[in-house]
């Protein structure tokens, strides 16, 4: 028989104590100690007298000899947090609303501005002056309220119904209109379809059309922020905030993002706008569980369900979520904001093909974030019908003025289609530019070059750059 060496006799055998204490290796490499309390697994098997499960995959589960399946129908639904009722009355007057009158007026003006802009842009699209638009009717309180409760340095990933987030953070009416018309002043240089805003200055990533792609992006950004928060102790810590609809929560990206955020314990706030419909699909056809909030607990994430029509509840929930998200280096939080999508999914949708008009009108009349806050302001004696009329008239004029200005502007230079891809124009790009210039020169009647800033000369100037 061949001579074999015993593993015990090997001079390179690993000491058993190092297998039981993996952090030993961390200390020898002089890397920061990683807290492992919440994720530490037992390394011993269950004993005959053990009362709890010791399997690594299910800690602290008691043994039982009774077989009982968990039936969701036997459990109470997750409650929905609110501060004031639909009549604008504060429920717990001792606690109040955590918002001063002047700040509440600013929030109200922004929500009304968003509502007016939505109506005017919807009409403009129907007139053929815009190619596409998406409204936020019924969900203004979620976007405006959340943005007002965050720090300006916090990084935000929006879906496509968060226009109020941009508005609250300082995105101007001119910037909105420039993007909608994709003119030369558009921050995205006309490369994106309407309502896909973005602002590096405001720490808001550009909206992306594919559903749910922003959720794993937010989880990754939150992990980067976690490292920055640890390394830059002289700067205030930041969180990553992600918005998505309940329909997007059916995508695989949602589950992957929440799982990685939970396992890596990153400072993130995931905000689901549950407005009842994913385009034409009602929630009854999307899931059978208790909304989206029920999924948070499954991933080990602190979770809360909030009345999205109550802007004070939204603000208080987000403030507390941000505090929790920054605890002990970071942890994810999931908030499900309950609302009703009053408008169509987009200008490409006719929602009355899949829901009754009376249902929409009932929600408009019964409850929405704007009228609820207005009732509270009127109850405080700081708002009345005259102020309402003056505000709406003034905002309408401002929106129309920005619209008219942006509509008359020229499109971005044709050369901008090639810029910003590489640090310098490549030889392959130069061939493409020359080919495009040649086509435009040979067929001048086929292309409206004059509508672009600089015309065809922008291509020549780009080729001349060193």
From TrEMBL:
> So which residues are the signal peptide here?
none
Listed GO CC annotations:
mitochondrial matrix
What this protein needs as a cofactor is: thiamine diphosphate
Q: Which InterPro entries does the record match to this protein?
A: Alpha-ketoacid_DH_E1_comp, DH_E1, THDP-binding
Report the EC code(s) recorded for this entry: 1.2.4.4
Q: Can you give the residue ranges of the Dehydrogenase E1 component domain?
A: 108-414
Q: Quick one: where is this thing mainly located?
A: mitochondrion
Pfam family example for this protein?
E1_dh
- Give the family this protein belongs to, as stated in its UniProt record: Belongs to the BCKDHA family.
- What this chain does, per the record? The branched-chain alpha-keto dehydrogenase complex catalyzes the overall conversion of alpha-keto acids to acyl-CoA and CO(2). It contains multiple copies of three enzymatic components: branched-chain alpha-keto acid decarboxylase (E1), lipoamide acyltransferase (E2) and lipoamide dehydrogenase (E3).
Q: What is this protein called?
A: 2-oxoisovalerate dehydrogenase subunit alpha
Q: What is the lineage of its organism?
A: Eukaryota, Fungi, Dikarya, Ascomycota, Pezizomycotina
């Amino acid at each position: 028989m061949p001579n074999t060496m015993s593993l015990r006799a090997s001079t390179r055998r690993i000491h058993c104590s190092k297998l039981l204490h993996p952090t030993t290796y961390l200390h020898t490499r002089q890397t920061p100690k990683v807290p492992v309390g919440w994720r530490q697994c037992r390394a011993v098997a269950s004993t005959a007298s053990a009362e709890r499960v010791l399997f690594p995959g299910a800690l602290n589960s008691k043994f039982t000899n009774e077989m009982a399946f968990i039936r969701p129908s036997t459990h109470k639904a997750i409650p929905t947090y609110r501060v004031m009722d639909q009549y604008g009355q504060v429920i717990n007057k001792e606690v109040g609303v955590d918002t001063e009158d002047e700040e509440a007026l600013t929030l109200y003006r922004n929500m009304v501005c968003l509502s007016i802009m939505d109506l005017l842009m919807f009409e403009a699209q129907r007139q053929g002056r815009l190619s596409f638009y998406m409204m936020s009717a019924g969900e203004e309180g979620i976007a405006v309220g959340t943005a007002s409760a965050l720090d300006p340095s916090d990084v935000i990933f929006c879906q496509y119904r968060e226009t109020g987030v941009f508005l609250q953070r300082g995105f101007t009416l001119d910037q909105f209109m420039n993007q909608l018309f994709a003119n030369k002043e558009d921050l995205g240089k006309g490369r994106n379809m309407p309502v896909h805003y973005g602002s590096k200055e405001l720490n808001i990533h550009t909206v992306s059309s594919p559903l749910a792609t922003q959720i794993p992006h937010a989880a990754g950004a939150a992990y980067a922020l976690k490292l920055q928060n640890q390394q830059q102790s002289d700067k205030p810590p930041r969180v990553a905030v992600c918005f998505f609809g309940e329909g997007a929560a059916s995508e695989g990206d949602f589950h992957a993002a929440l799982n990685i955020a939970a396992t890596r314990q990153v400072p993130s706030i995931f905000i689901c706008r549950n407005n009842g419909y994913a385009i034409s699909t009602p929630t009854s056809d999307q899931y059978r569980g208790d909304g989206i909030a029920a999924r948070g607990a499954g991933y080990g994430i602190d979770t809360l369900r909030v009345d999205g029509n109550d802007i004070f509840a939204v603000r208080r929930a987000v403030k507390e979520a941000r505090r929790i998200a920054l605890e002990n280096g970071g942890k994810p939080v999931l908030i499900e904001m309950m609302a009703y999508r009053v408008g169509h999914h987009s200008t490409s949708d006719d929602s009355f093909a899949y829901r009754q008009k009376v249902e929409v009108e009932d929600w408009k009349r019964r409850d929405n974030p704007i009228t609820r806050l207005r009732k509270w302001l009127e109850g405080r004696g700081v708002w009345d019908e005259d102020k309402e009329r003056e505000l709406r008239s003034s905002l309408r004029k401002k929106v129309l003025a920005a619209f008219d200005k942006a509509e008359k502007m020229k499109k971005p230079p044709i050369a901008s289609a090639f810029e910003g891809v590489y640090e310098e124009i490549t030889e392959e790009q130069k061939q493409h530019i020359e080919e495009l210039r040649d086509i435009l020169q040979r067929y001048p009647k086929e292309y409206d070059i004059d509508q672009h800033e600089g015309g065809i000369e922008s291509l020549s100037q780009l080729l001349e750059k060193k």
